[in-house]
Write a structure and sequence with these properties.
The protein is of the alpha/beta class. It has 15 helices and 17 strands. It has three domains: about 230 residues, FAD/NAD(P)-binding domain; about 100 residues, 3-Layer(bba) Sandwich (FAD/NAD(P)-binding domain), CATH 3.50.50.60; about 100 residues, no CATH class. Bound molecules: flavin-adenine dinucleotide.
């Protein structure tokens, strides 16, 4: 009997477990140990128990863990919970925990272990992996790394400073004492979570949002369904030569598709004067903006596959010149969240400060920006997770890096092949160790939404179980 360890009990870990037990290649009831801290088991980090003001950024009706449409919405109805356009993320966490629990209840081989893994030791002769927690160790034949995002970045070196919140989640525990002048570093979806909690739940009179670029996610426009005409699998495959696809061909194909769908190229590169103008533009142009966003979402799975065929030079050009625009349109915020932000910004409750240069601590937090110097009592870090495994300080990542079991990908995360097998700088492509999710950012371009993780996990498990069938 193959012994399997799944590290991480979030969407990816649950999905791996689900595919493993339902796969025809899995003999009997496989022995699967899934590791995570008790509060995150079956939920993952974004969907933990937290304030109800933290919303999904994908419509509830588009969220499912089981692949069947309306999986989450159907569950909400059975629980007599309100079905909103965007439900609180904790609702999705309750749903995913139940999916996981019923999976574990119906398969005796699944064991939830409420512990963090701190190290993994590979035996190259036996081809086995011994995983270590603080209290015990155990040997496995197959290991799946599904640990989600790495730790938070600390771009201004303020970690440990009093009244500096290094990681804001759960907001209802980490931000519940913040008082006085509160500044948030960042303008992404996490910063918006913090603003909503501080104003809607804590009733704060004013919150400052600081960022270097002032870029916020776009506002989700109207839903569109497309019949793709040019950006097809056949067209893309016809460009493969020597296992590479040239970026210029892909960009030309994307422009041709935008043209065929009557989407203005200038919309893709839109960059209004200020963050506030940006929000207002998207709210006022919901139909066109929605068309662009849903085209990007429709092409995402194919584009993610293409990404693994780009040369290193093309990947770098893409990340510098194209990615910021895709990223902006890829995870838009719900329109009602945007309307509320505009209202708060116009009434002065949210002060958005672009052109941030530095922040340091001198009794209070001094923020320097193009528009002046600001003095804050509390500073909340919402700059997002680390991407470079060499800078991550968690024991598991740093120990695996040190053993040269994992190596850095060119754009962040770790190196894996197209089948998601981990490529070790010391042992080469590992038989029996796989990774998926944020850790494989370098080869799974923008594949981190629930639906895509569920899809990609299935492909990974199909490949992984072939060697044991
Ligand atoms: C704030 C936020 C909001 C989001 N909202 C949406 C949304 O609305 N819709 C959507 O589709 N996507 C959303 N996403 C994207 C999100 O990344 C995916 O939906 C999904 O949660 C990723 O799942 P995962 O299992 O890869 O990672 P996670 O959900 O983070 O799960 C990884 C788990 O691994 C555990 N872990 C880490 N290290 C160890 C260790 N050493 N030992 C044991 N366990 C460990 C962690 O505790 C964690 O529970 C959001 C992301 C964020 C950050």
């Amino acid at each position: 009997m193959v012994k399997i360890a799944v590290i991480g009990g979030g969407v990816a870990g649950i999905s791996i477990t689900r595919h493993l037990v339902s796969h025809p290649g899995a003999a009997g009831d496989p022995e699967i140990d899934i590791y995570d801290a008790a509060e995150q088991m079956g939920r993952g980090k974004p969907y933990i128990e937290d304030s109800g003001h933290l919303l999904l950024n994908i419509p509830s009706e588009e969220m499912t863990l089981t692949g069947s449409p309306d999986g989450f919405v159907d569950w909400l109805k059975t629980q007599s919970l309100p079905v909103c356009d965007y439900n609180p993320r904790k609702d999705f966490g309750a749903y995913s925990r139940e999916v996981f629990q019923s999976l574990a209840d119906s398969h005796g081989g699944i064991r939830a272990v409420h512990e963090q893994i701190v190290d993994i030791i590979y035996d190259a002769e036996e081809i086995s992996y011994t995983v270590h927690t603080k209290t015990h160790d155990k040997k496995y034949d197959l290991v799946f790394l599904a640990m989600g995002q790495m730790n938070y970045r600390d771009p201004y070196g303020l970690k440990g400073t009093e009244k500096y919140v290094f990681n804001p989640y759960p907001v209802n525990a980490r931000l519940d004492e913040a008082e006085g002048k509160i500044g948030i570093i960042g303008t992404g979806l996490s910063a918006i979570d913090c603003v909503r909690y501080l104003i809607l739940e804590r009733g704060m009179d004013q919150v400052h949002l600081f960022s270097r670029s002032g870029d916020m996610p776009s506002v989700r426009g109207e839903t569109h369904h497309f019949e793709i005409r040019h950006f097809t699998e056949e067209a893309v495959e016809s460009y493969i030569k020597d296992d590479l696809i040239p970026l210029d061909k892909i960009i030309a194909l994307f422009k041709k598709e935008m043209d065929a769908q009557n989407i203005e190229e200038s919309l893709f590169y839109r960059h209004p004067e200020s963050t506030l103008e940006d929000l207002k533009h998207d709210i006022a142009n919901s139909a066109e903006v929605g068309k662009l966003q849903y085209l990007i979402i429709a092409l995402n799975p194919l584009f993610s596959r293409i990404f693994t065929y780009l040369s290193l030079t093309d990947k770098k050009i893409f990340m510098e010149e194209v990615h910021p625009y895709i990223d902006k349109n890829h995870s838009p915020m719900p329109i009602r969240v945007a309307r509320q932000l505009v209202e708060w910004a116009e009434s002065g409750r949210v002060a958005i400060v672009d052109g941030m240069k530095d922040v340091h601590h001198e009794g209070s937090f001094i923020v320097e920006s193009d528009s002046g110097v600001y003095d804050m009592d509390w500073m909340i870090n919402a700059t997002g997770p680390e991407k470079d495994i060499l800078k991550d300080e968690s024991p598991l990542i740093s120990n695996m890096v040190d053993r040269m079991l994992i190596g850095p990908g060119s754009l962040g995360g770790i190196l894996v092949d197209r089948a998601h097998r981990v490529i070790s700088p010391r042992y080469g492509t590992l038989r029996g160790m796989y990774a998926i999710g944020h850790l494989t950012f370098d080869s799974d371009y923008l594949s981190n939404s629930v639906n895509i993780i569920v899809e990609n996990t299935k492909l990974m498990i199909d490949g992984a179980l072939k060697q044991y069938s």
